[in-house]
Amino acid sequence: MKKAGILNRHLAGALAELGHGDGVLVCDAGMPIPDGPRVVDLAFRAGVPSFGEVVDGLLAELVVEGATAAAEVRDANPAAHALLTDRLTGLSYVPHEELKRLSAGARLVVRTGEARPYANVLLRCGVFF
Question: How are beta strands 23-27 and 38-41 bridged, if at all?
């Protein structure tokens, strides 16, 4: 058994399969999950695990070369917006409906227990060299 890093076997396996340019949608419990991408549902109860905990865990495991969030997060969820701008450089914004459309192209969806609106981000994988 791993003693560090991501212990969830479904998530660890899915992350190991990602390549350059693949998308990972990290979403709150209310985001519609598209058909197609692999889904790892981590939601245990409202707020557990939090959006921030999952984002931080993924950023410790992935190289991210770009990220997209819903423009609405800036006003509707200042805490999530602050977290995203603190941790991600070059964050871009699209309307929430466009983010939902883009999420269909993600290779992986990671659902958190977050119960606040617009706590969603689409990460684009980079390379470590």
Answer: unpaired
Q: Is 10 a catalytic residue?
A: no
Rounded-to-5 percentages of helix, strand, coil across the chain = 30, 25, 45
Residue 4 confidence (pLDDT)? 81
Q: What angle do CA 74, 123, 118 make, to 5 degrees?
A: 30
Of residues 7 and 85, the one with the higher pLDDT is 85
Contact (CB, 8 A) for 24 and 92: no
Retrieve residue 35's tokens.
């058909």
For residue 67, give the amino acid letter. A
Tens-digit pLDDT profile for residues 45-58: 999 999 999 999 99
Task: For residue 32, count CB atoms less than 10 angstroms from its CB and return exposed for 0-12, middle for 13-18, buried for 19 or more.
Answer: exposed
Res 32: pLDDT? 94
| The pLDDT of residue 2 is above 90 | no
User: Phi/psi of residue 27, each to 5°?
Assistant: -135, 160
Catalytic residue among 10, 20, 81, 96: 20
Nearest to 93 by CA among 110, 77, 112, 109: 77
